[in-house]
User: Fold this.
Amino acid sequence: MSDVVAVENTTADRFRTPRLMTMLTPGVIILLMSLVLPVAWLFRMSFNLSTEGGVIREGFTLHHYAAFLTDGFRLGIAWNSLLLSSIVTLLTLVLTYPIALFLYRWDSPWRNVLVVLTISPLLVSSVVRTFGWMLMLGDNGWVNTGLRSLGIIATPIRMTNNFTGVVIALTEILMPVMALALIAGFGRLDRTCEEAAASLGATPARVFLRIILPLSLRGVALGCLLCFVQAVSSFITPQLLGGGRVFLLATEIYDTAMTTLNWPVSAAISILLLCVLVVALVGYHRITRSFE
Amino acid sequence: MRTLGAIRPVELRYVKDGIRHGVVDLECLTKQYGGELPAVSGLTLRIEQGELLALLGPSGCGKTTTLRLIAGLVQPTAGRIKLDNVDITDWPSHRRDMGVVFQNYALFPHLDVGQNIAFGLEMRNAPRGDAKKRVADALSMVRLDGYEKRGIRELSGGQQQRVALARALVIRPKVLLLDEPLSNLDAALREELRQEIRDIQQQLGITTIFVTHDQSEALSMADRIGVMRRGRVAQVGSPSEIYERPADPFVAAFVGRINSFTGTAQPGQPAVAKLDAGATCIRLPREYGPGQLLMMMIRPHRIDLRRNGEQHQCGGDDRNLISGRICKTVYVGDVVQYRVETAGLEFLCEMSTRTDPATRFANGDEVTVEWDVNDLLVFDHGEARSQGPS
Assistant:
């Protein structure tokens, strides 16, 4: 009996690495086909020549990149995208942090119920949630009607078909993601550390700034990365709530590819967007490494 | 193991200069969490200037809650806490000027050693140069010179403990509170740090409250010990008082090993008790009312064992003798522990191993258990728990 076990063990050891490789294979193949190859194709496409009418000619030109980087309008779009994503990320963080901290701290059987409720909006498609916001923020939406009937405003506040509406909706849509990241990142928080700080003379505000906040930065970094990446590449919400008047990288890619049928230019902008995401990822990596 | 370096007084001067002594008064302090029994119940205790008071008790006796009440980390349900005759019951923790060392040290993982120690000074807005000097002095006090830039995770358990102590002391607190500070350390280090903490405490002359469940820690370090049970102080006294003149069977049984047995004072012979187990009679140190139920206790090391002892019932004037047989022998190192079966009772006895090995006993040896009647601790059995030798 023990011999059999021993043989099994050595077999397991010997084949551990190959077996692991076997198990990885399907995932690697799927990633190759669904991510690496399309991106590679996109990369190749961005160097092709484009002609009027959507005809693509095989070739190699850096023209699309150069045109984007020298075109004031398109650089403005890139700037808009970065600005919107930064504002949304910051707002999401500020609004979600207290909720996440409360949920992490709350010592009650209802805690898990509340956590599930907090992230339950993820179950609803962002199209539906965007429509919800269009109903609420429109000129005759609940918010404006309510404010008008209370006599606080006379004319409706414009919150659809502009930057403001996109920011509001995206912030709400990304809050569950931020909450998940923050709760996951609160692992280093330690109540006794806060008590120690208080006993050393730290007021509650200073305990927060000097102990709680630094110890939760890992979660903050992760949450900001996820929200920024999603915001910068978000398409549906800016498209619907922006009403064609908010120009962002994602909407520009869509318009170039689908309206102008200029796939090479669209591919080039996509690659530039990908570069932004890579920069965000590298930044995240740098920041988290500095926590070690 | 490193030998204990004597603490140079000059190292302490800077920290010591500012130490203000504190007298802590607890008045009818009560803390109730949720429904059942209060964690601390009507506790009244005065901790004198410069003394080290150990709060000793089993887990759940309320000793840590008491410490947290004093530190202001929890609010009492009732009662007052006074520091130097000022009522600080409603003061928040950060105003209380108490240095706390937590069981898990609670060092800030994102700060290095120097920043950890400087934290309290920073909260007090101490000038940077002054703070730097005080941090260096505090580190020197706990023999960690030059460790300012180390990360917390690079430190061993004992070093973390020292940093926690330095961090608590550098703010020149009026009172130092230690919550089981040695329980996470291995035995050798614990002994070493016991001495070190005691030395520092005495050099600084700082009022200290020390929570522990380890009776030898309390006995060896404290000026006074408060033995706690179910949220109340069962007895407060010097280590020798607690050990030699325990106020009740609980204290006697908690502090050190002890044999206990019950019996009844004999009518007609007021200084003799008939034991409940067996039909043995033993002498008592003083007279008791006839028929009085008694709980009697004797420390294992106060018992003598004799081979082939005479079969006495109610032996000589000041000695009690009970015959029995060795049923278990445990060699501990400095002592040998014997379990001796007598008629209906089992005694735990400890003999020093300094004696000639030839005189030691083996299982099955017929022996006489013998002790001086004045070593017997006798309590009214009204509230006593009956328990075998522990």
